[in-house]
Specification:
By secondary structure, the chain is an alpha+beta fold. The chain contains five helices and nine strands. The protein is globular and about 40 Å long. The two termini are 25 Å apart.
Length: 167
């Protein structure tokens, strides 16, 4: 059964393994936690990332963000992040949703399925009329997954497509 689970302490080991195995920068997704220890993840990173959903004492530019993990029959497949609303910079930048899929599971439809589940949640959270996403033009798989979920190209620059999905 494919499901999304909000970041939590019960799945801490699997989440840590996933996050620390992601490259520092791949397909436009940055990961400052590549290779950190389990203790550092447990004591510092996980509490901080969970606090991002309901931030306290953050800078004015900070946008609340909730982390979810995609699971299939008990195996962690991918990570999805929903930014609750957008600043002007995020409207032409990262958008509402960012995600990644484990290399071993790419090309099997998980990006499309996980994004569909994430969009169900985002439609309840996001106040804008459309869900904003951005993808590198070289990331064909992610572009297809986003388009499979009803996106259209709203704009582009030299490196990215700026995509929108109606709520």
């Amino acid at each position: 059964m494919i499901e999304l689970r909000k970041m939590n302490y019960d799945d801490i080991r699997e989440q840590w393994e996933y996050v620390t195995a992601l490259p520092a920068n791949e397909n436009g997704l940055t990961n400052p936690y590549e290779g950190i220890s389990f203790e550092e993840y447990k004591i510092t990173v996980l509490p901080e990332l969970m606090m991002h959903e309901n931030p306290v004492n953050m800078p004015n530019w900070f946008v609340p963000e909730t982390y979810y993990y995609l699971w299939d029959n008990g195996i962690l497949i991918g990570e999805y992040r929903i930014r609750h609303y957008l600043t002007d910079a995020l409207k032409t930048g990262a958008g509402h949703i960012g995600y990644s899929i484990k290399k071993d599971f790419r090309g099997k439809g998980y990006g499309t399925k996980g994004l569909a589940l994430t969009l169900e949640l985002a439609r309840k959270i996001v106040p804008e009329e459309e869900i904003y996403l951005r993808v590198l033009k070289t990331n064909i798989a992610s572009f297809k997954a986003i388009c499979n979920n009803g996106a259209y190209i709203a704009d582009e620059d030299d490196m990215h497509y700026l995509l929108r999905i109606k709520k």
